[in-house]
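Z., the sequence and structure:
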Amino acid sequence: MDKKDIRKYQLAQLELLYETDKICKDLGIVYYLIAGTLLGAVRHGGFIPWDADIDIAMRRKDYELFRKYWEDKEESPYFYEHYSTEPNHWGPHAILRKKDTHIIYKTRGKGKYKTKYDGIYLDIFPLDEAPVDLDKQAKQAKKIKRIYCINRYKLANVYEDNISPIKLFAKKVVQFILSPFSFKFLNSKMDKIMQEYNGNGSNLLVSMASHYAYSKQCMNEDIYGEPKQMLFEGEMRYVPAKTQEYLKSLYGDYMKLPPEDKRYGELDSIERIIYGGRIDG
């Protein structure tokens, strides 16, 4: 993707963030820019130059309120994709998609499970409470990881063009074995596990649906706290109260740029984006 295409992609994502920000303000929902999006805001004032996704998080009650908002919005130009709204949504967290776009990936696998919409999206993660006991934290993280792995095996995406017949056959066998278990069933179980300690008074929050390690994300709730505002691509957006502590927990020396050969992000996996309608194939 050239610079012009990248910027068009980023502007479409910013449209999703603008819409989310507006809805959250109207509903009194608190959200936070998190993960690489927050890192980009602090280090670059916006998107990380070699990446272009947007991640936000909400405490569970706000996450569910935001989900409820989309229940009767069929005519919206956006689609709230969640395991409760899309049978082939395999991930445990929600995303907000721009309906009239279509992303064609060059490095992501093709598989059996296709979603109704497959365009530009924004990630929305729930924040749930963790137990104080480290053994209980480890057990919870293990249970979440187990179901996440089952979802990946069920998805059975193929990423290589020259995959061996034996490996392909093995993937199909595992996928067949797991076929009785729907993504909705698996993710609803994961959701229950993630909410297991909500209300336990530990004052610890974790974005358990994220790919970052549970232990790195287990933080005192005052790190999120009352959100403050920070400039992101020319607009003020909400971020955790203790931004530095959050970023240090996830990235260590977060202001240090990674080596050029390690600067891989969403942009590297995209071949092209179609705007103005969805295509099949």
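The chain has a mean pLDDT of 91. The CA atoms of residues 63 and 205 lie 14 Å apart.

Let me know what you think.
H.
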